[in-house]
Design goal:
The protein contains six helices and 24 strands. With 396 residues, it is α+β, with helices and mostly antiparallel strands. Among the domains are: 81 residues, no CATH class; 97 residues, Thrombin, subunit H.
Length: 396
């Protein structure tokens, strides 16, 4: 039986906070000690993610850089997410028997939950693009300028519309209806209220991390991960949204002094990539895969489905955990194909590492921090495969 109807479903969460019941539902609380599932649930989630990535490799246009947004998906594919029991849910617009026959040729379907939905992923992406193309934070139209992001909810089989408003109660619902009507006629749009416009996580402030100097001021972000560029040079991948020019000097800054680490090789801030490769010129800095605080090392890469747990570390927020909320998030500051999570982020975290599945000692790299959703402070990251594809880099 179809789990969704064609009626408009509004999911009014909070006027100033996204997902306020998250801690109560067992997901990570961004203000407390990083959350961790039991070993049994971690293992179930690891299996779910492995199966999901197997499917993505099967559908990939380029298996070297698997993508969960652009791939040769079957026409009846609705999406995927991990549920509260840490099982992978595959959504299909066909009958479950038909879907089971298709997927059993690719993966072991015994641990998979199939779910019939109305809209295919292709339909959701089409509607997502219609709204995202209209998003403009500088618009004189109060409804258009209130949109802070656009995404897709697989668990809701819907497009997500993130809205900033000071209205509350019935006035907020009325406002959301007007925003919806001004950008879309699609029959299933979920609405989530946020407390402000999303912003890149860069700041002008003293502190440790990767820094560069502009007009006498120190701008800083965070180191993401060690990598090799196309020429075999070793360096660090960090954020690119500060507009760093090729050849710019990057420093490691401590409370006492600054030491040059290297220079910018390639930098991207467009489409689905916000990243820069910093070529190491100071060989006193040696590469590492270790993530302090979480105390695990980074292995290979992975793509995380909705509902899974991620682990982040940036200079300001340090080590945090959170849940993947939206894997198709388009930011109001111009990036697409990002991931919105419930982990905490702050100014200065940009470029920091985001990891996912694995175990207590080794986890997979999934992306780097690009920004945060205000005023929730929820972390937004760009996917590692998009980064490596754009920069022509490979993980150390």
């Amino acid at each position: 039986m179809k789990r969704m109807t064609r009626s408009i479903i509004w999911f009014i969460l909070c006027a100033c906070l996204l997902l306020p019941t998250m801690a109560a539902s067992g997901l990570a609380d961004t203000d407390k000690t990083p959350f961790m599932y039991s070993e049994e649930l971690q293992e179930k989630e690891r299996i779910a993610i492995d199966i999901y990535n197997t499917l993505l490799r099967y559908w990939a246009y380029d298996p070297q850089y698997i993508c969960d947004v652009n791939a040769n998906f079957p026409y009846f594919y609705g999406g995927a997410y991990v549920n509260s029991d840490r099982n992978l849910v595959l959504q299909v617009t066909s009958t479950i028997d038909e879907a089971r026959g298709y997927f059993s040729e690719i993966i072991d379907v015994e641990s998979i939950i199939f779910e019939e939905v109305i809209y295919s992923y292709a339909e959701l992406k089409q509607q997502h693009k219609i709204i995202a193309d209209k998003m403009d934070s500088t618009s004189s139209d109060v409804y258009i300028s209130s949109i802070t992001g656009v995404g897709i909810s697989f668990s809701g089989n819907s497009v997500m519309l993130y809205i900033c408003t000071c209205e509350t109660g019935s006035a907020a619902v009325e406002f959301a209806n007007k925003v919806r009507d001004s950008v879309s006629s699609f029959s299933n749009v979920l609405c989530s209220f946020t407390g402000g416009t999303d912003t890149p996580c860069t700041a002008v402030e003293l502190g440790d991390g990767l820094h560069y100097i502009d007009s006498g001021a120190w701008y800083y972000g965070s180191a993401g991960y060690w990598a090799y560029d196309g020429g075999g040079n070793l360096g660090i991948v960090t954020t690119g949204h500060t507009g760093l020019a090729s050849g710019s000097a990057i420093y490691i800054r401590t409370s006492a002094y600054s030491i040059q680490f290297g220079t910018i090789g390639t930098s991207f801030y467009s489409g689905s990539t916000d990243a820069a490769f910093v070529k190491r010129t100071n060989t006193s800095y040696t590469p590492s895969r270790f993530v302090p605080g979480h105390n695990f090392s980074i292995g290979s890469s992975d793509v995380m489905p909705e509902g899974t747990l991620i682990y982040s570390r940036g200079e300001k927020s340090k080590h945090k955990t959170g849940t993947v909320l939206d894997t198709n998030f388009s930011t109001v500051y111009g990036l697409t194909n990002c991931v919105l999570t419930s982990a905490a982020a702050d100014l200065g975290d940009s470029g920091g590492v985001v990891a996912g599945s694995g175990n207590a000692t080794t986890r997979k790299l999934v992306g780097i921090i690009t920004g945060k959703q205000n005023s929730t402070g929820y972390l937004i990251y760009v996917k590692v495969n998009n980064v490596n594809s754009s920069l022509n880099t490979s993980i150390y």
